[in-house]
Design goal:
Leucine-rich repeat, LRR (right-handed beta-alpha superhelix); globular; transferase; 999 residues; repeat
Length: 999
């Protein structure tokens, strides 16, 4: 900033926000004694705030220093300025001195997104003019909330969410009777009973106490809050019944009590007094009785979740009167239908908006009616798993043209699969497993171009697999096992080069295996066991380098085991039991370092069983009942013996047989080691030059047994989620540390390679916004990463949760966190790191809702180039850049494209592969077209209900979506780089904050 400005002694407003000034804040600003507004937001100022800025003769009323790199204590001189009304110091690394209480005129205090620790200064509660106090997110305030909070009687907005406060709420809080907005969500340590005095806050419109440890009964005095629009008590420990008074708050738009221990029944007249209710979430409780028919009076209801309770009786017909209903979830209850025909579908025939219906795991005990085809044209998801449904699948089901997911598995359906399913052009997942369906597989199914998962296993389907199956180009999982299919496997199946899992086991398929099976380069699981396949095993199978599980057991295959099987470098399971295979077991199998299970029993194999590599661990069970196998004693086969030639000849034979191969092997090993060291040294030198790297020697030593104890034997109760290569569990180490333990499923495609990549990258990088590795546990049959535990889950969970909502600042902050992580990966090294799989589920959130990028299982090092090409595309459809999907080109610009898609999804709550999109309309195009109307038309509607300043929000969203489109340019060279993305997004955020303040 130019020093000449210091001569403008009468300057009242200094606004240099949203620029790129750096260095320390100039001390000469303190000479501007007439200055009333100092705005330096969204720059790169660093260091401490100079105390000379503030003196007793100053006229300052507003200070805006948010989103810089300031640290240290806020200078005490600032609190001698009695004229100050607004202080915004958000998103720095500052601490609060006790003198804050001297600011008797202060009305607005923004301290969110800092690194504050300890208790709130008691002097804060002397600011009796304070109306707006925001301490949310990324802070670490601890201890009990002081009773002095009751002194702030002018407060209208109080946000203490995402801190570490504990204990009971002080009763004095309920003396702040001007409060309109109270958010204490996700402190996780607030305990005790909720005081009946909550009913004193009669001006409240927003009340959020979710994700804490409140207990006891919900006080009926909440019914006094007659201005309340939204309240959330979800994910606590409340017990008892729901107070009847809550159903008398006519202003309510939505409420959640999900995930408590509430019991009893819902009042029969609950629908009579809530005319504005749009959503209610009561899932995961212990509620019982019948679902009240009066719910039909909620004429504005959009979402209803009663899942995971013990409701019984009939599903009310009157639910069909909810003309705006979009989501209905009744799964895991004990409700049923009035007649043997599932008439619930006729209830909703006049509903134009219903998109999700989940009735799974209820004893419906009926048949599907033809009226199922009359559901909304917006209908997207139908789950009737395990409902004891009988009869046929009606042909009118083909009318549900926007359906993306349908599960009718585990029922008692009979008859044939209707060909009309082929009209469901948006379908991505179809599961009809575990029924009694018969007849052929309709060829019409093979024209569902978006179908990614097809499960027809466990039926009585017959005849052949359709030749046209090759049209399912999006297919990733195919399961036709346990049917009565006959004839040959169509050669067209092997042209599905992107498929990951194929299971055709337990049928009557015959004929030889096609050599074109080798085209399926990304295949991870292939199960063709228990059929009547014949002929030789094609050598081309050896090219399936991603194959983890291969079973050809119980067929009529003959000939030798291909030597090319030595190329199955990812193989964990190889089952060739019960064929007519002959010859020797190839020595090449000794090189399969990940092979854990081998069965070649009941064949006609001869010769010596290999002894190296994985064969060290195999038992006699793997080699039973063959013609003439020999080997070590523990395998229960004869010892191998040689013929006895003459002495001289014998010596020559021994030299040729042992000395020469050994010499050759020695030369080969030395050559490989030298080359490997040279290449690996180059790679590691680029990784290890990072000053923040964490070498393996510093990792905690954690054994497999300790991980078992930490997770209670990898109990399902500790399961956090499942990913591409395994499962993640929450664990508690002996010292009380919470960790996330990523256990790899070694039977999955590329799991071992993913483990190696993730260990190497995470072991050498450290950044605030990258998930931190604590240790690894690796042995021959178990591999796990021990990672920093992220208690708030992932971004996908928050975006699509029915009980939580991220506001504008949450979303902006998280996306800035992700951008900082990617900037570090791209620019923090001499060797750029490309993540390759940015998506909401890979953005984890810590206690303070800080975003951390995770899952480096398919990340790439660019070495000396700016890009590389790979033949196997592993990224997630919808997020990967066009050049990655079509040509396999990996570059930092590809990550920027993924970031742009992530940015769009975060603010629209629409997935790039949402079924609303087609070849004519994509998420990107939807955003582009929205600029000619209003960006508010396409954003997440939850944002609209949580924001008051729509002008500021629309300006912010327009800039953010414009940036996202710049990230997602079709050509890589047209995309903005991540450094500029981060700078622009910071400016967007700070302008939004400023617009809100001035508005």
């Amino acid at each position: 900033m130019p020093n000449e400005l210091s001569h403008l002694y009468h300057l009242e407003l200094l606004h240099f926000g949203y620029n790129e000034f750096s260095g320390e804040i100039p001390s000469w600003i303190g000479l501007l004694t007439k200055l009333q507004h100092l705005i330096l937001v969204s720059n790169n100022f660093e260091g401490t705030i100079p105390s000379s800025l503030f003196n007793s003769t100053s006229s300052l009323q507003e200070i805006g220093l948010e989103d810089n790199q300031l640290w240290g204590s806020i200078p005490s001189s600032i609190f001698k300025m009695s004229t100050l009304k607004v202080i915004s110091l958000a998103k720095n690394k500052l601490s609060v001195p006790p003198e804050v209480g001297n600011l008797t005129m202060l009305t607005d205090l923004y301290l969110d997104n800092n690194n504050f620790e300890g208790s709130l200064p008691s002097s804060l509660f002397k600011c009796k003019q304070l109306q707006y106090l925001d301490l949310e997110s990324n802070n670490n305030f601890k201890g009990k909330l002081s009773p002095e909070v009751g002194n702030l009687t002018m407060l209208t907005y109080l946000n203490l969410g995402y801190n570490n406060f504990e204990g009971s709420l002080p009763s004095s809080l309920f003396k702040c009777k001007q409060l309109q907005y109270l958010d204490l969500e996700s402190n996780n340590n607030f305990t005790g009973k909720l005081s009946p005095e909550i009913g004193n806050l009669t001006k409240l419109t927003f009340l959020n106490l979710g994700l804490n440890h409140f207990e006891g009964a919900i006080p009926s005095e909440i019914g006094n809050l007659q201005n309340l629009k939204i309240f959330n008590l979800g994910m606590n420990n409340f017990v008892g019944t729901i107070p009847l008074d809550i159903f008398n708050i006519s202003t309510l738009h939505g409420f959640s009590m999900v995930g408590n221990h509430l019991s009893g029944t819902l009042p029969s007249n609950m629908g009579h007094f809530l005319p504005n209710l749009e959503w209610t979430f009561l899932g995961m409780n212990e509620l019982s009785g019948m679902i009240p028919a009066s719910i039909s009076n909620f004429s504005q209801l959009v979402s209803l979740d009663l899942s995971g309770n013990s409701f019984s009786g009939l599903i009310p017909k009157t639910l069909g009167n909810l003309r705006l209903l979009q989501h209905l979830n009744l799964e895991f209850n004990n409700v049923t239908i009035e007649s043997s025909e599932l008439s619930i579908f006729s209830y909703f025939s006049n509903n134009a908006y219903l998109s999700i219906l989940d009735l799974s795991r209820n004893p419906l005990n009926g048949v599907l009616p033809n009226s199922i085809g009359n559901l909304s044209t917006f209908f997207e998801r139908l789950d009737l798993t395990g409902c004891n449904i009988k009869g046929n699948i009606p042909i009118d089901i083909g009318n549900l043209s926007r359906l993306t997911y349908m599960s009718l598995r585990d029922n008692d359906l009979a008859g044939s699969i209707p060909s009309t399913i082929g009209r469901l052009s948006m379908l991505e997942q179809l599961s009809l497993s575990g029924n009694r369906l018969k007849g052929p597989i309709p060829t019409d199914i093979c024209y569902l171009g978006r179908l990614g998962e097809l499960f027809l296993d466990g039926n009585k389907l017959s005849r052949h697999i359709p030749e046209s199956i090759n049209n399912l180009t999006s297919l990733r999982s195919l399961n036709l096992a346990f049917n009565q299919l006959t004839s040959r496997i169509p050669s067209s199946l092997w042209t599905l080069t992107d498929i990951l899992r194929v299971d055709l086991s337990s049928n009557s398929l015959s004929g030889p295996l096609s050599i074109y099976i080798g085209n399926m380069k990304v295949l991870t699981e292939l199960n063709l066991s228990r059929n009547q396949l014949s002929g030789h095993i094609p050598e081309t199978i050896g090219g399936l380098i991603s194959l983890v599980n291969l079973s050809l057991a119980a067929n009529q295959l003959e000939g030798s085991i291909p030597i090319s099987f030595g190329g199955l470098v990812s193989l964990v399971v190889l089952d060739l039991l019960g064929n007519s295979l002959s010859g020797e077991i190839p020595k090449s199998l000794e090189g399969l370092r990940y092979l854990k299970y081998l069965n070649v029993s009941y064949n006609k194999l001869r010769g010596e069983i290999p002894t190296q590599g994985p064969f060290v661990n195999f038992s006699a069970e793997s080699f039973r009942s063959n013609d003439a196998l020999c080997g070590v004693v523990r395998l229960n086969v004869p010892t191998c013996t040689e013929a006895s030639p003459g002495p001289k000849k014998a010596m020559g034979v021994r030299i040729l047989k042992y000395v020469l191969p050994a010499l050759g092997l020695t030369i080969l090993i030395v050559s490989v080691v030298l080359v490997s060291r040279k290449l690996h040294g180059k790679k590691n030198s680029k990784l290890s030059n990072n000053k923040d790297s964490m070498p393996l020697s510093t990792w905690r030593r954690i054994s497999h047994q300790q991980l078992l104890q930490a997770t209670e034997g990898f109990s399902a109760n500790n399961l956090l989620g499942e990913g591409s290569f395994g499962s993640v569990y929450k664990g508690t180490l002996l010292d009380g540390t919470y960790v996330a333990i990523k256990v790899l499923n070694l039977e999955l495609e590329g799991a071992f390679k993913s483990f190696d990549i993730e260990c190497e990258i995470l072991g050498h990088i450290r950044h605030r916004n990258l998930v931190k590795i604590i240790s690894v546990c690796s042995n021959i049959d178990f591999k796990a990463l021990v990672l920093e535990y992220m208690p708030k889950g992932n971004l996908e969970m928050w975006l699509y949760s029915n009980t939580h909502c991220l506001n504008m600042l949450h979303r902006l902050n998280i996306m800035i966190d992700v951008a900082m992580a990617i900037e570090y990966l791209h620019l923090g090294y001499s060797t750029p790191i490309v993540h390759c799989d940015l998506k909401p589920s890979n953005v984890l959130l810590d206690e303070d809702m800080v975003g951390h990028v995770a899952d480096f299982g398919i990340a790439k090092l660019l070495s000396d180039g700016t890009s590389l090409t790979q033949t196997m595309t592993m990224a997630t459809i919808g997020y990967m850049a066009p050049e990655y999907g079509s040509e396999g080109i990996v570059s930092t610009r590809g990550d920027v494209y993924s970031y742009g898609m992530l940015l769009m999804e975060t603010f629209t709550r629409k997935k790039p592969i949402d079924d609303m999109f087609s070849s004519e309309m994509s998420l990107k195009r939807l955003i582009e077209e929205s600029f000619s109307l209003s960006i508010l038309e396409v954003i997440d509607s939850n944002l609209l209900s949580n924001e008051n300043d729509y002008v500021a929000m629309e300006t912010c969203l327009s800039a953010t979506m414009g940036l996202a489109l710049h990230c997602c340019a079709d050509l890589p060279e047209q995309r903005i780089d991540i450094k500029n993305v981060l700078a622009k997004l910071n400016k967007i955020k700070l302008k939004y904050l400023h617009d809100q303040q001035s508005g």
